[in-house]
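**Entry details**
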Amino acid sequence: MIVPLGRWVLETACEQASRWQELAPQAAPFVSVNLAVRQAQEPGLVDDVARVLDRTGLDPRCLQLELTESAIMDPGQEPLAALTTLSAMGVRIAIDDFGTGYSNLAYLRSLPVHVLKLAGSFVDGLRTAGRADPVGERIIGTLVQLAHALGLTVTAEGVETEAQAQRLKSMRCDAGQGWYFAPAGTAEELTRLLTRYT
């Protein structure tokens, strides 16, 4: 059921993102959709995404597809041709939970990836000001430098405190995701938020 379910999630997310694009053309947020391994290997993935983007009118740059590290970094598999095609269409590709799987850096360099999302487990050690885990900090700093060297942006997951946000900012992490910024919300709540800021 994961393929039809994933297709429904993709369509629903793109429909909502298209409404936000109409509401605030210059400030519309991109929407991230997680892809399961099975979906990423589906022969019709590119056609599905192209059809949904065409039907909803969503700018491809407003869609980010997230795959786990293990889904696309197994050195025994060829890079998914679909990712290259989707990237060429303008869709952003992100590796979710980076650092928790098998990190083949040479393979990473050859993938059409735009974003590394650092697993929340790395960010946990930055939770309290003045009591950060020094090893964890060095790992995060190294991963941020690595990503930037590859021309990628970095999003830290699991940011729940101001101390975490400030420390990540000082390490030049590009973005943060977590309850410190906002709890999970409905599309209506996010629409009100977007309206307020635009």
Summary: Residues 1-7+29-104 form one domain. The CA atoms of residues 73 and 107 lie 7 Å apart. The beta strands are 31-34, 63-68, 92-98, 115-118, 153-157, 175-177. The chain has two domains: 1-7+29-104, 114-191.
